[in-house]
UniProtKB/TrEMBL annotation, chain A:
Family matches, as InterPro entries: PMDh-S-like_dom
One Pfam family here: AcnX_swivel_put
Ranges where the Phosphomevalonate dehydratase small subunit-like domain occurs: 29-104
Name of this chain's protein: DUF126 domain-containing protein
Record's keyword terms, sorted: Lyase
Keyword Lyase found: yes
């Protein structure tokens, strides 16, 4: 990858920010009732990622599920530094976006939220070893 | 406003609202007429930090704003039996919202107060039963707002132009037909409403359903129970009750004239089976309490209850209601009659979200589909379900009986 093709197209930035981390792809999760903000683990017994820690991972999740209280749980997890490092979604998701926006305002802690229009590109990035994300309101750079 | 002309808090809230509008793909913002905020239940330090920040910025809500239940009954604090530290944080969360200018009504049924929305108003409403009620029964317009964004809407007075704010998104996409129950009596009508609500929640998800054939005596309280049940078993934000709700004078009005398929036809027996499935105990089981008022009991429901409750109860009857209704009860002297009969009135909160009920070892009976749906998980209790008359008869008997 050369610096000139670093700028990624086909991605909407819902919440800007910078981060790097290891990608992890999971099924849609309800943060309220499905995730423990105190230790960053999935607590939904019926979720395939049950007991796995999401902390610091760049989470590839098509969309979120469940109660809008998920926004509070995510904001609390970002405060406690147990949250994922970033979200790469396939659908716009207000619960995730609001949780991340609020944490950024309250604690100045970044948790970028991106929506991919290209599912192949999304799947490809999800299998990389490590990603660096630099998202601004004008666009996003994603480096593998 | 973004530049701070209406204060730092309004500017900040508007920024958040614009981010939300972008996240949901809305093209513009609308003026918001009213808000109802579900921020008083404590989910952690971030809940409190969010509100305290607006208090520190000198924020004031700029539209009439009601508050949902909190974790504590501020009028009867001795009823609270949970962790004291959580109780303190929960109490501060409630007070901080009041400092922002929200009305301290702490009710999940703000539509039963003077703050009832009007037809056609654009709202920033949170709390699932309130959302479905104002959309369906009043014809006001709100999306399913929730944590943080409800307060942001109240502080900046704007909501995004999307979802149920837009007329064409409010039409029914599916139909449910009830057969042979249009002549049901007042007691059975309550049960049918809960059954229909549970059914559309399960089967329709977030899709809007037009319900045909509800009993002619179906009351506003029954529609309240229907919506609350639908929003518990599913993500329902609106339904139409043909001939009963304002945007469904006819089936054609509810669907916009489109052909809409029938998802199911339910008769009396099938409806009875749906509510029977809520119970985790059999008839005859010993009760430790009866829980009513989820959503908060209305004055009309208290009136019906008083007609039913001659004699005294063998087990405590807890009834959640709002402060405004409590004031009305006191003015009428009904509060005394209720406490003489063995009723514990709970205001500002609800018996399914917080630790109030003292004895949890026997089953608890309710006429609320919502309470029956959530309490086994939240409180770890056994549940019996029945009509209001069944609940009263069972409270007198101390075990589950039918009238």
């Amino acid at each position: 990858m050369t610096p000139s093709d670093v700028r990624t197209t086909g991605v909407d930035v819902l919440v800007p920010g910078q981060c790097c981390g290891k990608p992890m792809q999971i099924e849609p999760l309800s943060f309220w009732g499905g995730f423990d903000s105190s230790d960053g683990r999935v607590i939904d017994r019926f979720h395939p990622a049950h007991t796995i820690s999401l902390t610091g991972h760049i989470l590839f999740m098509a969309h979120a599920r469940g109660s809008s209280s998920g926004a509070s749980v995510l904001a609390e997890a970002i405060r406690l530094r147990t949250a994922p490092a970033a979200f790469c979604l396939l659908q716009r998701d207000a619960i995730i976006a609001i949780g991340a926006m609020v944490a950024q305002r309250l604690y100045a802690l970044p948790c970028p939220v991106l929506v991919f229009r290209d599912a192949d590109r999304w799947s490809d990035l999800a299998t990389q070893n490590r990603l660096r994300i630099d998202a601004t309101p004008d666009g996003v750079d994603i480096e593998a | 406003m973004l530049a701070g002309g209406r204060g730092a808090a309004a500017a900040d809230a508007l920024e958040l609202m614009l981010g939300f509008a972008q996240a949901v793909g809305a093209d513009r913002l609308l003026r918001c007429d009213r808000a109802h905020i579900d921020g008083c239940l404590y989910h952690g330090q971030a809940s409190l930090d969010f509100v305290e920040r607006y208090v520190a910025l000198g924020g004031r809500v700029c539209v009439p704003t009601s508050l949902n239940v909190g974790s504590v009954d501020l009028i009867h604090p001795d009823l609270f039996r949970g962790d004291p530290a959580l109780g303190t944080a929960g109490k501060r969360l409630m007070q901080a919202h009041v400092e922002l200018g929200c009305a301290p009504n702490f009710t999940c049924a703000p539509y039963q107060t003077l703050m009832r929305p009007r037809y056609g108003e654009q709202l920033a409403y949170a709390e699932s039963n309130a959302i479905v009620f104002v959309n369906s029964v009043i014809g006001a317009r709100t999306a399913r707002y929730g944590d943080f964004i409800d307060l942001a809407g109240a502080l900046c007075g704007r909501v995004p132009h999307f979802d149920l704010h837009v007329a064409e998104n409010r039409l029914a996409r599916t139909r449910l037909v009830l057969e042979g129950v249009s002549g049901a009596d007042v007691e059975e009508a309550g049960l049918i409403a809960v059954a229909a609500g549970l059914f559309i929640g399960r089967e329709c998800g977030a899709e809007i359903c037009a319900i045909e054939g509800l009993p002619q005596v179906t009351s506003e309280d029954d529609l309240k129970a229907l919506g609350a049940a639908a929003a518990s078993s599913g993500a329902v934000a609106m339904f139409h009750a043909v001939g009963l709700t304002p945007e469904a004078e006819t089936l054609a009005a509810a669907t916009g004239g489109a052909e809409v398929s029938v998802i199911a036809r339910l008769d009396r027996e099938m409806l009875g089976q749906i509510v029977a499935s809520l119970a985790t105990v059999s008839d005859g089981a010993r009760l430790s309490a009866v829980a009513l008022g989820t959503p908060h009991f209305s004055l009309q429901e208290f009136e019906r209850l008083l007609q039913l409750c001659e004699g005294s109860f063998a087990v405590p009857v807890y009834i959640n209601t709002g402060r405004d209704i409590l004031t009305e009860l006191t003015q009428r002297g009904w509060d005394k009659r209720l406490s003489d009969a063995g009723v514990a009135l709970v205001v500002d909160t609800c018996t399914y979200v917080t630790t109030i009920i003292e004895e949890l070892d026997g089953a608890i009976m309710t006429n609320s589909g919502k309470w029956a749906y959530y309490a086994p998980g939240n409180l770890g209790v056994d549940v019996a379900f029945g009509t209001l008359a069944d609940c009263v008869a069972s409270a007198k008997a101390g075990r589950v009986v039918r009238r």
